[in-house]
Amino acid sequence: MIIVPIKENETIDKALKKFKKKFEKTGIVKQLRSRQAFEKPSVTRRTEIKKAIYKNTLISAVQA
Question: What is the CA 4 to chain-centroid distance, rounded?
């Protein structure tokens, strides 16, 4: 359960913004989307490897 402490003079907009930020950090929405359809372990591994290769190329491009 997400609890957002609200100060006395704080607007609802700011409190809502804090709530959304905390909710996003939990990763619930990301997890729900990934669970909508089954993905084989080999496919998840392949996507992780592709992401790692992409990140590695970004790092090597910055260093060069």
Answer: 19
Residue 22 domain flag: no
Query: What torsion do the CA atoms of 33, 27, 42, 40 make, to the nearest 10 degrees?
Result: -30
pLDDT for residue 21: 94
Q: What is the DSSP letter of 27?
A: T
In a domain, 35, yes or no: no
Low-confidence ranges of the chain (pLDDT < 70): none
pTM above 0.90, yes or no: no
What stretch of H or E contains 20? helix 12-26
